[in-house]
Amino acid sequence: MPGKSDKQQQDMAWRAIGGLVGLATAFVARKAIGFAWEKATGRKPPMDTESLDIDLSEAIGYAIVMGVGMQVAQIVAGRAARRRYDAWKAVKATARDAVS
């Protein structure tokens, strides 16, 4: 990209990668947490937590489990992706220095 520094390009690359990792993590975590909820409770996860057909304690419990689970998944996946990205940048920089 003309006019962009390496730092700006790397930041843009990380934002794109981080966004994709976030989307994938959210999708997988939601499925995994829903599966675990169903196995633990014997019921499907409540999709409409505002529905009066769902017990208040179940709706709150599901919200807590989903919120904590999603945040933990995002932290773990984001940190793993960042480690891999930083390692890739270091290899790329070493290769560039060896060629120079």
State the total count of DSSP E strands.
Answer: 0
How much of the sequence lies in strands comes to under 5%
Q: If you compute it from the alpha carbons, what radius of gyration comes out, rounded to the nearest whole angstrom?
A: 20 Å
Which percent range fits the helix content?
A: over 70%
Largest sheet: none
How would you describe the shape?
A: elongated
The secondary-structure element order is HH
On the 0 to 100 scale, the average pLDDT is: 86
Structure characterization notes:
The chain is mainly alpha-helical and 100 residues long. 80% of the residues lie in helices and 0% in strands. The chain is built from two helices and no strands. The chain has helices at residues 6-41, 56-99. Helix 1 (6-41) packs antiparallel against helix 2.
